[in-house]
């Protein structure tokens, strides 16, 4: 998270997946600039303890950013796999993120 914090801009890629124990997991990758080079790394894998709703997914991302002091203002892009919780018609993770970042 230190290199992401020091990057002038970063992007995240999100995916909700179910593991072999049938537990939902939120997986995030990050792409950032470090010493003039673009880097892509695994950011986190967190269990979705309640539901796979947009608010739950957003809360996990927001909590991770808060704990690791990652500034929403340097987030320039967020991509997903297009799952309903990520791209839903009424409430979607992308929309929630746009309210604080993009």
What would your notes on this structure say?
- By secondary structure, the protein is of the alpha+beta class.
- The chain is built from four helices and four strands.
- The chain has helices at 2-6, 54-67, 84-87, 93-100; strands at residues 10-18, 24-34, 37-47, 75-79.
- Strands 3-2-1-4 form a four-stranded mixed β-sheet.
- A hairpin with a 2-residue loop joins strand 2 (24-34) and strand 3.
- The longest helix has 14 residues, at 54-67.
Shape: globular
Total strands: 4
> What structural class should be given to the helix and strand makeup?
alpha+beta
Alpha-carbon Rg, integer: 13 Å
Provide the spatial order of strands within the biggest beta sheet: 3-2-1-4
Quickly count the helices.
4
Helix proportion range: 25-40%
Mean pLDDT over the full residue set: 86
Largest sheet: 4 strands, mixed
Strand content: 35-45%
Order of helices and strands: HEEEHEHH
How far do the termini sit from each other?
A: 19 Å
Uncertain residue ranges: none
What is the topological layout?
Elements: H1 2-6, E1 10-18, E2 24-34, E3 37-47, H2 54-67, E4 75-79, H3 84-87, H4 93-100
Parallel strand pairs: 1-4
Antiparallel strand pairs: 1-2, 2-3
Summary?
The protein is α+β, with helices and mostly antiparallel strands and 102 residues long. It contains four helices and four strands; from the N terminus they run αβββαβαα.
Keywords:
four-stranded mixed beta sheet; 102 residues; 4 strands; alpha+beta; 4 helices
